[in-house]
Every structure is written in structure tokens, then in C-alpha cells.
Structures
1.
Amino acid sequence: MDYTVLEVVIIFVAMAATFVLGSKYLKSTEISMALAGVVAIIFSTLHGWTTTPVKLLVEGLFTNMDLAMTFICATIFINIYSSSGAMTTITRNIVERINNKWLILICMGILMLIPGAITGAGSVSVFVLGTLVYSIVRFMGVSEKKATAFVFMFAIFSAACPPINLWTMLMTAQANMPYVGFELLLLLPIIIAGAFTILYCGWGSKRAPKEEILATLPEVNAKMYGFGGLVRVLLPLLTLVVLFVLTLVIPFSMPVLGLPLMFIICTVVAILCNPNKTSVKEYAKVISDTMEQVFPLVATVLSVGIMQNAMAASGVKGLIGTAFVLLPFVWIYALILIVGPFAQGSMSYGSAVVIGTPLIFMFNTAGMNVTVVCAALSLIFPIGDCLPPSRIVGRLVLEATDYKDTYTSFLKQIFVPCLVFGLLALIMLIKPAWFTFLA
Amino acid sequence: MLIESIIHYIYIALAGIFGIMLLVKVFKREKRQGIVYDIVYAYCCVPFLMRLLGIK
């Protein structure tokens, strides 16, 4: 192949220009990403680097299709579960039983960590608990913006939290390292940053009186109270947790269900536990509305897939990776908190492969502890889940919390906790020897 | 294994259901009207329908 760096840079600029112009004039980030991918594929075809442009486009649509399926199934589950009044029952019980604001915020933070820690995806935490946690945090007197920031921060912490950290897993798999010794290295910064986030969001807020909060919550079916109600509320969630845990504990005895099917099984359980007389037509309406609700996200992940495939085929993906990892160490330290999250925003988990693994090899040649380096990088990438072009978790949080203000105002709100989290990871990256005892 | 095959077919059925729902939404939906989203809906239903048809 006869292509030069300059030609790839031109493609990269053309892609960026298409994305910006598309976002401005077509008012849709999804189609802008797809168009940016199309532009890269056209350039590649004109250069003769590919003879199958349509195949590249269609295969790109399949790149994140499983993720799209997970999003659809998870949203169907949570909407059907909520329609039974289960969410309101949980909120009512927490507000009635726990009086300490900080204790509730800590409980909410820990609760948010569980789904993402087990699945490795922050989006699952948002789907399963985002709306519930948001409403409870709001009742603690936390402002709308800070409550949204709370949900987002714990969603990304949950993705980075052990036992399943996909960025670490991808990097270790590529670098032929064992996925061992990461638990404390990942957990400690998350605990520190989580504590900071709770203080940052909860400081100065005043919990509303219990009666006032309960008055604002809708009434639920009487069958949702007592032991029977407890079973109805907990069984769908418990089924999900049991399925998650079984796949981890007995992976070889258990058929591979996959996240979408797990959510469908839990949806069936939620339907069986629903005390309200809901007709098939009403369930069909919930599913139809869910498709419209989740569509922006589905369109985003599918469009990102086109763009990722186009970037790989045109050499732009490689250009970004090599340009960054060939920099001197001091520049890597200076830029990693910008490049890492933006790579995540544009390449999703591909960031770990394109930037993470070469960096591990580089740090290894310098004699640094690569387990700590790998953990540090795995903490930096999740921050990019709020950054363009994909903004997957960020957009999901805004959907879950029905955020009214601009996306920029959301980014401003999460900047400080993200910076603290990023700086903790940066310290680990600069001085890995200090953290070796945790590995 | 039989169970693995059943799961495989469940996924094809799910992809088909979602694909057909997206296809319906190309023509009839409440939110996000306009030709731009017609196009977005149209290309988004493609992978689901292809999975249903067993093309990929």
C-alpha cells in the first residue's frame, strides 16, 4: 500500500470537518458520525486502499450491534419494571427508613457500582439504577445538575470497578499479562474519587422533610407492601444479580446467555411480579415507546461502529495511536488526561487497544510496574464516556435523569470530580512504584 | 449443544423484532420527525434485519 502520513492526516481532517458541519447543519450527531465514516471510506476507495466500500459500511454497522441490543433489552426491562411501581416502592422505603443524608448518598453510590462492576459497562448501571438513584439523590436536596453529575460519576466508576474492567482486560490480553492484582489498584482510587464526588454533590444540600418527599411520590399498588411486595420488588433485580454472578462463578457450566438475554429473562420475571392488571397491548405500548426512547443511543453506537471501521480502514485509527505513543514521556504525562478520554469518546473500548497497549509496552521498556500503569490507564479511559463524538454514558445519563439544560452545562458540572479522578490516575501513571504494594 | 442453539435462535428472533420495530418507526413515530431521522432510522434497522435474514 502506498499511503503517506499526510494523506491520512487529510482524511482525519476531512472526517472532523464532516462531523462538525453535520452536527451544525443536520442537527444530528448520529448521522454526522456516519457521514464522517462515509467520507473516510470514500477517500480510502479513491486512493485504492479498499475495493469494498459498501462492505466496510455494513460491517461497521455490526461493530456495536451487540451493545445496541443490550441497550434496547435493558431499557425494556427497566421500563416494564418501573411500570409495576417497583421503583417508587424502593424510593418510598429508602426515604422512610434512612434519615442520614450522607448515609443515603453512600448507599446510592455503592448501589450504582454493583451492576457496572459485574458487567464492565457503566451504561448498565445507568439503565438499571440511574433514574432511581437520581430521584433519591434529588430528594436529599441535591440540585438537578449535581444529581446528574452524581449518577454519571458513579456510572463511570462502576465501569472501572473490579472485578470486570474491560479496558484492563483488553490491555492485558494484548500485552500477554495475567489479569491478576488489579482489584486494590482499581478500587482504591475509585473509593477516594467516589468519596470526593459524594462530598462535592452533597455539600450544602438540605434534605427535604420526609413527609414532603413522600407526598410527591406517586401511590403504588397495595400489593407492593409487606413480604409479598418485597418479593415482587426484589425478585427481578435479584434474578439479574444471580445471572451476572453465575456467569462469573460457573462460566463453564453455564450456557453463554449474554446481557441482552439476561435482561429479557428479568423482563419476564418483572411481568410475572407485576401486581397491576396490565394488558398485552399496554406492554406493547411500553416496548414501542422504549424503542423511541432508546433510539438516539442505538443510532449513536451503530454510527460509531461505521466511524470506527472507517478509521481502521483508512489508517486514521493507527495514526492517532502511533502519533501519541511516540511522544516523549513528559508529553504523554501532559496529554494523557486529554488524549485518553477523547480516544474513548471516538473509539470506545478501542482506545485501550489503540493507545493503551502500546503505552504499556513503552512503560515496560522504561522498567516501570506495568500492572500499575495498566490500572492507571484503565481509570483514565472511562472519563471519556461523556465526550464527543459518541458520549454514550453521558447521553444515557441525561436521558435517565431527563436533564433539561445543555450538554455543555453537564460537562461543566462533572469537570471537577472527573479531574480529581483523572489526577489520581495520573499520579499512579507518573509514580507507579508508589503503588506497587497494592498490586 | 442444544441450549446454545436455542439461545442463538432467540437472539435472531430478538434482532428480527427490533429490526421490524425500527422499520415501522421509519414511517410512523412520535419523536424526532424529519428526513434526517428518516435516514438514521433506515440505516439503523439494516443490521437487525440482516441478522434476521441470516446474511450476517
2.
Amino acid sequence: MKEKRIYEEKKKNFFTACSLEEPEWVPVGLDAITWPIAYAGKKTYDLLGKPKELTEAVMKIYLELDLDFCTDIHRNLMPLKTIEALGGKGYVMSSDGITIQHTMQVEIMRADEYPEFIEDSINFKLNVLPRRKFSKTNGTREEFKQACLDAFEQMKLQNETSMLLQNAAEEAGIIIAWDPMKMPGHPLDTLFDFYRGFKGLLIDLRRQPEKVEEAMSQMLEEILPMNLKIAEEIRNSDETYIIPIPGGGFHAVPYLNRKQFDRFWWPIFKQLILPIIEAGTKTFMKSEGKAGYCLDAFKELPKGSIIMQLEEDDPYENYKHFEGHMTLAGGISTSKLKLASIEDCKDEVKKAIDTFAPGGGYIFMADRALLGATDANPETLKATYAFAKEYGKY
Amino acid sequence: MENFKLTDVLEELEKDPSWEEDDNLRIALVNGLKAILMLF
């Protein structure tokens, strides 16, 4: 079982780094969603619902790189076909046939509907809002039932793909940040992403903040018991998990000011995440957009519990919030992997490892997920990653 | 549009083994579908 031994060695090394101790080498991670499919010369839509073919395509780049860690291998499984079976348009294929786009930055819920949401949130979310999003909820009862049965078939294929990807990655010795228990998202991000949209929610925070808080309290009441149950399952499991932040990253946070962050986001986040951290996980977070203004808040969480990937914030400027407290994931921008020379990328790797690796608490990876075919030059990426693995030996 | 509650259909599917005999899988699929209906 050479593969199993390699996997266990990498896992031990990874957890050492994330526990803010010096590992044997700097763990190297890949954050990619649909780019690997393009790299394999395939189109995403052609592979959805085909577990073996999709797994084979996705794994091509993962097998060619000497990786320790990956983030979004499961997100190739965006439930596009399930949504289509229900007549939904929340996610659509882009014209390149590779990337999948979220189209729900609109106000599915109206600004005056908070009272209805607060009074019976489950009924509102399951009997009212879906009728505005899924065409097959608006026909006969039998038509909806058939749409559900069609959706279940797609979900089974998605689950099968998920398991194949999970197994293939582990066989390749790659640790995955994933959430097998499906931890619910932060209520503010859920309102932002799925109900009120970008513009609607930001206006609500100014015009009716108490209503937003009431809605979030209602949602928290529903999800907190689920989180506590997940924490219990993790505590009783032999497995050590690296769990991605629910929803994948900061969504509303980059658009808030510090006062709003302190009032609407941080207290609820702490309630949700602390039981999960205390159960013994490491949580991987993507700071999508600019979120440097709030990073000092994370010092309230236990040391070594968070792995943070910075997207638009300069890691060198923000390292003061990390050092001795949480793990920084980053070191190269995707724009460099796309446009710069291999030598320039290697210089960037040296600078990052020299700065961030001493003492542990550092994972080398790009600043954001690779999506479309041109998001990175494959030869540059392969050479840069190989160099990071070699240069990152302690 | 026929007047019915989506949750009634979902509840019926959750209890109906004719489309999926495995109770745990059936419940998990219905819960997964609820999440998709609520969010996506």
C-alpha cells in the first residue's frame, strides 16, 4: 500500500504546517474548478452525468503535478443537471462550454417579504421562493413529482462522481478540503447569494437592518443544531478533516464595512465555526475579493484552526494577521501563471517561500481558483509547481 | 398552475420506497433536493 503510505505522510506534513509548526516540506495545493477539464481537452457539459469520464478528465492535471492538497475538486459537480431537471436557471453553462456561471444575483425575495420569511422561513423557502426559480414547480402536482424523480437520478450520478473523485484524489496522495457533512452556510451569505442578491441585501443593511437580523436569527435557529450535530459526528470520527468554509468563501464580506462586519457577520460566524473547530478540524477559507480589513478578527479563533487563501489582498501586507496564528495559502497569482515567464514565476515562489515558510503555517498555492481554459498557462503552472515542491523543502 | 404545496410532494416522496428502496439514501436525496430548491 505505497499510495496509502504516501497519502498518510502528506497528511501528517500538511497538518504539521497548518498547526503552525515546521513540516518537512511546504505543502503545495491546487485550487481549480473547471480548468482541469479544459486542460484534458474536454467540455464540462459533455461530462456532467458521466462519473467515470468526468473523473478521468479532472484527474489528468492532478496526476501530473506532485500535489499535497486541493480545494475544489468536488465543485466540478455543480448540480447543473439537477437544476435543469427542475426547470431552474440558477446556473448556466458559459459559451466556452467549460465554466458554469451563477446567475442568481437578483432579488428572488422582495424587500417587503422579510416578515413572511421570519414568520415561517422553511415554508417561505420551500413553497414560495422555488416557484419563482424553477419552472417545473408551476405545472401540475404530477409534473413536479416527475421533475423530482428526474432530479434524483441526476443527484445519484453526481454523488457517484463525487465518490470517484474523492477516491482518485486520495489514491494520488492528495488531501481534499471537503465537507462530507454539508455544513450550512452563513445566513448573511445565504441572503446575499440566494434570496436578496448583491444590491438588495446591501440596501437592506442600511434601510431595514433589524429585519435582516431577525431573518438571520431565524435561519441560525434552523442551522445551529445541524452544525452541532456535524461537530459531534466529526468528534466521533477517526478521520481528520480539512473543511472548507460553508459556501466556499467570503461572499458578502468584501462588500461590508468594518462596522457591518462586526455587527452582521462575525458574531454568527463564530457561533457556527467554533463547534466545528473544537471538534478538531482545520477550516479552509477563501477570502474572495478584498477582505483584509477584517483579518485581525480571526485572532479570536483558536491558533492553527484556519487556513486562509487571500484573493485580492496582498499577502505580504497582510501577513501580520497570520504569523503565529493562522495558515496562509497563496504565493503566486493566477495572472502570473497565465502571463508571466517561468523564471518570473520561480522568483515569485522563492520570495513567497522565503517570507512565509519559516516556522510553518504556510501552503503554496495560487490566489484563486482556475476556471476557464486560459486562466493559466499549463506549462508555466507545471514548472512553477514543480519548483515550489523542490524549493519548499525545509 | 395547480394548487398544491411542494413540501407535500417532497414528504410523499420521502415516504415512498417505490422509487428508492434504501431508506437512508431516499431521505438523503429528498433533503438534498430541498436544499437545491431553497438555494439554487
